[in-house]
Design a protein that fits this description.
0% strand, single chain
Length: 199
């Protein structure tokens, strides 16, 4: 078990990854899907409030950073008009499902349900970026996902109370970030598509 103060290190590393994506967005190298990134701002910040309500404490800093970094990216995507991914109908469908999950949370108002629906909302919001990372990995920037994964891992190593309020969002973020990082870094979609073509 790591000392709880390591959560601050994880948050700083996550912030570094966020700055990396922010700069890539401003340069037009990364093209964020705004549906994903707007909802990646809202869902974690809602989960952060729910974690505070449930007394999670310093470990909730990871969840805050998971919402704060996308906020920076969304703002950057409006600064450089060429730095955003054109949206399809399916992006709006996933975004609507994500918003619906947030509304259900608001209606229930219970902390653990808030975290669960924030995870569901975030998960549906991730689908457009997962598809984009699979098909067009060159339009993404992997460090934000790598450091998000590290941040979640550090947070999990500091947790002393193993219940859903404490571990739900960090486990989800660890798995999501690891998956998207691998898609981008190793251009997995392009490799799979090439192999399918040569069969």
């Amino acid at each position: 078990m790591l000392d709880e103060k390591f959560i601050i290190l994880g948050a700083l590393l996550s912030f570094y990854g966020g700055l990396n994506y922010l700069i890539a967005t401003l340069k037009g190298e990364a093209k964020p899907n705004r549906v994903s990134w707007v909802l990646w701002t809202l869902a974690p910040l809602i989960a952060f409030s729910a974690e505070l309500q449930k007394g999670v404490g310093l470990a909730s800093l990871m969840t805050f950073m998971v919402g704060f970094n996308p906020l920076m990216v969304v703002i950057a995507s409006f600064v450089n008009k060429k730095a955003y991914w054109r949206l399809s109908k399916m992006d709006y469908v996933y975004g609507s499902i994500s918003v619906f999950a947030l509304i259900i949370w608001k209606l229930t108002g219970e902390g653990n349900l808030a975290i669960l629906f924030a995870i569901l909302a975030d998960g549906f919001a991730s689908i457009p970026t997962i598809i984009k990372s699979y098909r067009n990995p060159e339009t993404e920037n992997s460090p934000i996902f790598f450091f998000g994964m590290v941040n979640a891992g550090i947070t999990l190593l500091t947790i002393k109370t193993w219940n859903f309020a404490h571990i739900g969002f960090p486990i989800y973020i660890l798995l999501l970030c690891a998956f998207v990082y691998v898609l981008i870094k190793f251009k997995l979609g392009l490799i799979i598509n090439k192999r399918l073509l040569f069969k």
